[in-house]
From TrEMBL:
Residues 35-54 bind DNA. SUPFAM superfamilies: Homeodomain-like (SSF46689). InterPro entries: Homeodomain-like_sf (IPR009057), HTH-type_Tx_Regulator (IPR050624), HTH_TetR (IPR001647). It comes from Candidatus Companilactobacillus pullicola. GO terms for molecular function: DNA binding. Gene3D superfamilies: Tetracycline Repressor, domain 2. This is TetR/AcrR family transcriptional regulator. Residues 12-72 form the HTH tetR-type domain. Keywords: DNA-binding.
Length: 189
């Protein structure tokens, strides 16, 4: 049993070293210009250690970013009252502003967007009543809203947050309500 615990500790340490090394390299390099060799050299681990833990550099970033985003969404979905969820989502975007800006600048934004989209699907599945909509309507509305919410927050963060956060919340709420009403009208035809 002790050997298993020791092996797990070594694996966790290797993962953390690799994550830290990649994050350090991203401070000065584009994601696309970083190699596994550079990461393992900086981390002080072997290539074998890298491939025991990850399949790609994308996986290293996912291991770092996904738990943070998932935890924020878990909190929003399960612990925030319904009428405060949009505000909580806005706070989440403010918290990850620097991470998102770095992802845009270093060309790995698609990783964050993928994780965000998965969480938005969970968010809408758990906070919306889908009984009057078809599975197809639900699927595409969620994709549409997720992409739209992400695009609005991204633009707001990247362009310097010139509008108030309340203005952004109102805009998003208006879009959500209008698109749902349009979908409801389509369903009743």
């Amino acid at each position: 049993m002790a050997a298993t615990e020791h092996s797990q500790k070594i694996k966790q340490d290797s993962q953390q070293y690799l994550i830290t090394a990649l994050l350090q390299l991203l401070k000065t390099k584009d994601f696309n210009d970083i190699t596994v060799t550079q990461v393992v050299k900086r981390a002080g681990v072997s290539r074998m250690a890298f491939y025991r833990n990850f399949e790609s550099l994308d996986d290293v970033l996912i291991a770092y970013i996904e738990p943070k985003i998932n935890a924020s969404f878990e909190n929003i979905i399960n612990r925030i009252p319904q009428d405060q969820k949009l505000n909580a989502l806005g706070s989440f975007f403010e918290e990850i502003a620097d991470t998102l800006k770095m992802a845009v600048n270093r060309h790995y934004e698609s990783i964050i967007q993928d994780i965000f989209n998965k969480n938005m699907t969970k968010f809408y599945d758990q906070t919306m009543n889908w009984s009057q909509f078809s599975p197809m309507q639900r699927k595409y509305w969620v994709k549409f809203m997720s992409a739209g919410v992400y695009a609005i927050w991204r633009e707001w963060l990247i362009s310097g947050q010139n509008e108030t956060i309340n203005d952004i919340h109102v805009l998003l709420a208006d879009f959500q309500i209008s698109t749902l009403k349009a979908l409801e009208n389509e369903t009743t035809k």
